[in-house]
Amino acid sequence: MAKKSIIARNAKRVRLVAKYAVRRAEMKAAGDYEGLDKLPKNASPVRLRNRCKLTGRARGYSRMFGVSRTPFRDLASYGKIPGLTKASW
Fold it and tell me: Counting C-beta atoms within 10 Å of the first and last residue's C-beta, which end of the chain has fewer, N or C?
């Protein structure tokens, strides 16, 4: 499980990106790059990181399911994901 501080930091970035999204789009369309530089660094969508909803893990993330590989495997094994079964032969 990821550290709580890292998860909280990413959540804060998500809120900042949402707050400044309209303003960033207007400045970008107008070509006001000095104004963009004055916005907070964390307001840029590039600084967001996809994280697992269950564990907060950043690597091995599956966009379709919103979880990383380890909880995905557990959920698939227990049949918690509809329409998905673990292969066995």
Answer: C
